[in-house]
Design goal:
Number of strands: 4
Strand content: 5-15%
Number of domains: 2
Largest sheet: 2 strands, antiparallel
Number of helices: 7
Length: about 140
């Protein structure tokens, strides 16, 4: 059942706009429940879990280890996504297009420090977007 729904999403261009981005990163983690328990059967569909998926570059993966390998080959991309989420949390708002130059600068600076988490946090709290937030009255 779930596999058929995923196939329909992949075939429909409107659905695939989002599913084509989400599924390659999510399906390899499908064996985990929300509490982190490993499972081999989708309890709702009562069917074996099929976590095989092709990444946007056509690399076939199916496990958390495979996903880790793909992410490690593109550390800047992963770190940029994480920096955007951290900055969104720090600012208490969605990231705007005008924030992206600062995000990219934080990622570039962190790359010089082997993408250390502390470099990301320091970059965020040192950014103009964070330091010059207007206080709500």
């Amino acid at each position: 059942m779930a596999g058929l729904m995923l196939e329909e999403h992949r075939k429909n261009p409107t659905c695939n706009n989002c599913h084509g981005v989400i599924e390659p990163h999510g399906l390899p983690l499908e064996h985990f429940t929300v509490t982190g328990q490993w499972r081999d059967v989708d309890w709702q569909a009562n069917a074996p879990i099929d976590s095989k998926v092709a990444m946007p570059d056509s690399t076939e993966i199916e496990s958390p280890a495979d996903l880790r390998g793909v992410l490690l080959h593109r550390p800047g991309q992963f770190v940029q996504a994480m920096t955007e989420k951290l900055m969104m949390y720090a600012l208490g708002r969605e990231i705007q297009p005008q924030d992206m130059p600062q995000v990219r600068a934080i990622v570039r600076a962190a790359a010089k420090d082997n993408y250390r988490f502390s470099s990301l946090v320091t970059g965020i709290v040192s950014s103009d977007a964070f330091r010059m937030q207007a206080l709500e009255e």
